[in-house]
Structures are given as C-alpha cells and as structure tokens.
From TrEMBL:
Residue ranges constituting the Inositolphosphotransferase Aur1/Ipt1 domain according to the UniProt record: 69-211
Alphabetical keyword list: Membrane, Transmembrane, Transmembrane helix
Superkingdom classification of source: Bacteria
Organism expressing this protein natively: Variovorax paradoxus
Signal peptide: none
Residues spanning the membrane: 27-48, 68-90, 97-118, 143-162, 174-192
Annotated protein name in UniProt: Phosphatase PAP2 family protein
Pfam families assigned to the protein according to its UniProt record, in alphabetical order: PAP2_3
Length: 229
C-alpha cells in the first residue's frame, strides 16, 4: 500500500498541521534572521533619509483627493511588521527562506537607491496629529525623501504573493487565503489613509513588490514519489 506525501499535505483535514510543520522548520534560524534583518534595516534607512538631497514633492491625483484622512487606520499600517514576518515563519525549507530573504533585500536595495538619487516627499497635508500621539510620532520620526516607491506597499505585495503560494501548498481553506489578500489590501490602503503616501508612490511600490514576487516565485516541483506506508 502506498500514499503520496503531497496528498496528505493538501488534505483539508491536515492543513493546520501542514502550516504548523512549516512554522517549526528552522524556527530558530527564522527568528534570528528576521530580527537581524529588521534591526539592520532601520539604521541604513534613516541614514539615507538624513543624508539624501532635497526631496521633490510628489503631485496629488484625483484618487488622493478622494481618499479621506483616516487616522484609525494607523494600527493597520503598523501591522506590516507582523505581516511580512509570516512568509518567513511559513517557509518550508532553507531554499524558500533564502528566496524570501533575497526578495526583501533586493527590494530594499532598489528603494534605498531611489531614495538616495531621487528623494521624494508627499505634500504637507494639513492634518490633526495630536502632540504625543502615535500618528504625530510617525510623522516626526519618518523623514521626507522616502515616498517613491513605497516600501510599505512593496513588502505588502511581495508578502501577499508568497503567502498565497504557501497557503495554497498547505491546502489552507479559501477564507484564510482571502484573509491574506484583504490584509495586504488594507495595509496598502492605510498608507494613503494616514497620509504617509500618495497614489504615485503606492503604484511604484506595488510594481516593485509584484515584479519581485513573480521574479522569485518557485518553479513547480516534480511529481511526488510514492513511499511505502
């Protein structure tokens, strides 16, 4: 009697176990790598912000004028850091983990190069960011020059594409795969709702994340080899 390992993984009854197995795989390396990457990103990011030249202010579009300022979306905006950790957590092996790391590194390098050579900023919106609030801290801490392309959007789109494949491979139900897309869309929308980005840099970030997600997608594996029960 034989059975296919892949068919077990795709069974609706076993998708939680398939996801849990992915989480357990190389968990210590994932934790260390994600921590080092996050801590290493910010000094480089803010060094570029502080040393780049004067920023060019991006123009507004009709879409920007339609989207209302919605400070309640700030918590959604901040969930990016949890969202981009999920593809790392669900990487099934070292090869997939390396692919995700390469994608994030290349997107970061491209964006920082653009920030350095062509710094851009959003218009100075007249918004009510109360002194001491989280939104006021964000506006003060995140300097101009980093508008186009939006790394927030790039990472969201890239993570969404990787998670979509991971959830599909694990046989996750449709509602969970839809939740992944809804989360990514909410983060992208939040970048405009809290007035951190405008449509032009959102589109730039979307294109960068989409290109990297498809460029680094894994090729289909060979058919599973039956094994003895």
């Amino acid at each position: 009697m034989t059975h296919s390992i892949a068919s077990d993984a795709l069974s609706p009854q076993t998708w939680p176990r398939a996801l849990w197995q992915r989480c357990r795989t190389l968990w210590l390396l994932k934790l260390a790598g994600n921590t080092v990457a996050t801590l290493g990103f910010f000094p480089l990011y803010f060094w570029v912000m502080q040393n780049a030249g004067p920023a060019w202010v991006l123009p507004l579009t009709a879409v920007d004028r339609l989207i209302a300022f919605w400070p309640a979306m700030l918590p959604v905006y901040l969930t990016l850091w949890a969202y981009i950790a999920l593809p790392v957590l669900l990487a099934k092996d070292r090869r997939e983990l390396n692919t995700i790391a390469i994608g994030c590194a290349v997107m970061t390098a491209i964006a920082l190069a653009v920030f350095w050579w062509m710094p851009t900023a959003i218009p100075n919106f007249a918004i009510d960011a109360a002194l001491g609030s989280s939104l006021h801290f964000l506006k003060t801490f995140d300097a101009a020059g980093n508008a186009f392309p939006s790394l927030h959007v790039s990472f969201s789109v890239f993570a969404c594409l990787v998670l979509a494949r991971q959830l599909r491979e694990a046989g996750a139900p449709l509602w969970l795969r839809l939740l992944n897309v809804v989360w990514a869309v909410a983060i992208v929308y939040s970048t405009m709702a809290v007035r951190q980005h405008v449509l032009i840099d959102v589109l730039g970030g979307f294109g960068l994340g989409l290109a990297m997600g498809f460029a680094l997608r894994e090729r289909p594996s060979a058919a599973p080899v039956p094994v003895a029960a």
